[in-house]
Amino acid sequence: MNNNRIRNVYFIPGWGFNADAVRYFNINNCNFFGLNYFNEINLSINYITSLMANTIKEQSYIIGWSLGGLFAINIGFLYPHKIRKIILLASQPKLLEDVHWDGISSKQINEISRIGHTNFNSLHNKFIQLVNYPNRNIVFKKYLFNNHCFFKKQSCLSLLKLIMETDLRHEYKYMNSKILHIINDKDVILHQNINHLIKLNPNIKVATINGAGHAGFISYKNIYNKIIKDFINE
Question: Minimal CA–CA distance to 133: which of 211, 69, 65?
């Protein structure tokens, strides 16, 4: 497979991470959305989506990791002419758990929110620990730590609120874009149920990576790259 044939790929990182956090992907011509998109006063999902959509070329491929997946889904729904295929890494149309819906536990998100409001500096370490699990390689942890930037306290807390409140299951159900989910079975942040996703959208594809955590693309780089490139080139 000729890597140079892949064009118009965009990557949206997870909560608080800058673009360098996802440069483990060896995809040429990949565009990365930076933290400047989240450094706005109005942090509604539709507003940020519109900013991103303005820079995306038509018939593009978009990869969304964690929180980034919400924006990828919203772009695919509101601007379908922009998106050819969507790849969701440790992400889904509703991140918070609900009745008959697996996701981030209410207990965990409330604890993260509490720490963010009472001791914002310690939130950095707590979150990296969760994202990095079950990696034991200190290099991976340092890499995540160095690329996780709490640029503004209020912006981060607003994005956390967005995670808690956003529900795009209706949009996801009626999307026409081809969708691939990469799910990690050791993810201690986002618990996912494949059956929930397929029930909403039977046309999706799902790949499960055993042993990988929330940032599985770092420790399982080659597997991720192959799955993503095969899906893009189908």
Answer: 211
CA pair distance 150, 185, nearest whole angstrom: 27
What are the structure tokens assigned to 124, written together? 């950095």
Q: Quick count: other Cβ atoms within 10 Å of Cβ 169?
A: 16
Q: In angstroms, rounded to a whole number, what is the distance separating the alpha carbons of residues 2 and 151?
A: 37
Whether the predicted pLDDT of 180 surpasses 70: yes
Q: pLDDT by residue (tens digit) across 137-157?
A: 888 888 888 887 766 677 788
Tokens at residue 12, please? 């949206």
Specify whether the backbone of 8 is left (phi greater than 0), alpha (psi in -120 to 50) or beta: left
- Sign for the CA dihedral angle at 12, 146, 115, 216 comes to positive
Helices 106-118, 153-165: axis angle to 10 degrees equals: 160
CA distance 65 to 228: 13
Predicted TM-score (pTM) of this structure: 0.93
Token pair 């914002």 is at which residue? 120
Tokens found for residue 207: 């790949």
Task: Give domain limits for the chain.
Answer: 3-232
CATH of 3-232, one of 3.40.50.1820, 3.30.70.240, 3.50.30.50, 3.40.50.720: 3.40.50.1820
Structure tokens at 86: 């969507």
